[in-house]
# Entry
Amino acid sequence: MSSFKVALVQLKGRPTKKENIANAIAEVRLAKDKGARLIILPECFNSTYSTAEFGRNAEAIPSGETSQALAKLAAELGIYLVGGSYPERDGTKLYNTCPVFGPKGELLCKYRKMHLFDMDIPGQVSFRESAVLTAGESLATFSIGSVKIGLGICYDKRFAEFTACYQQLGCDMMIFPSAFDPYTGPLHWELLGRARALDNQMYVAMVSPARDPTPEYVAYGHSLLSDPWGRVLCRAKEDQETVFAEVDMKVCEAVRQQIPVLRQKRTDVYELKSKK
# Structure
């Protein structure tokens, strides 16, 4: 399988974890009905994005309530389901974790957010994930046929070396469940997605929660998918919405042949090395 349809499911938060899971399940079913093979949920889709809420909503992965529901759904529909992210409890530690379930309901991999969102722009946005969460230590990939896909979460995409390490692993696509804020969103959201895609000649998907002005932290919305040319193939607006695009490895191959920057890197002068 060198091409397939992708669905970016931008979800609006509900009052309870149970309602958030039910909302996600309903939207995933609709995306499958429209032909999506790979379906991606947003960052922290099952609870409020809040340091006060992470611990209350955390669960083990894959034995927790959210994971079990997503695994069952992936098996029923025969899809690859990227579970956005949700708080994971492992012993005494909490992580912001993205799990991926395969078409048999199996856990293909899980990624723990490596770069924690600690940012303070006076008068605009202030958040400190590291006050509650522990940073992950490892990259994570899965494959759909011949297409190798890497995982990051939100703030990770600001670090160009991070995505470049995935490119060195042979990834053709990156997925970033992401809850950007409305201040940096207009400035950096699309720019970062297109830049990471163009730099690494790969597809980049960024899936946000829908905009909701009522919670303490407001997500930007505007989920999008960029192709290896740096073009935006689909883009959501602010409300709950699912958008679709086709991922085609022939595009990757054409770009890499016509503009062979990945082969032209001067590794005799500079080099990037993944340590883990």
Notes: DSSP finds six helices and 15 strands in the chain. Helices lie at 17-33, 51-57, 65-77, 160-168, 184-200, 249-258.
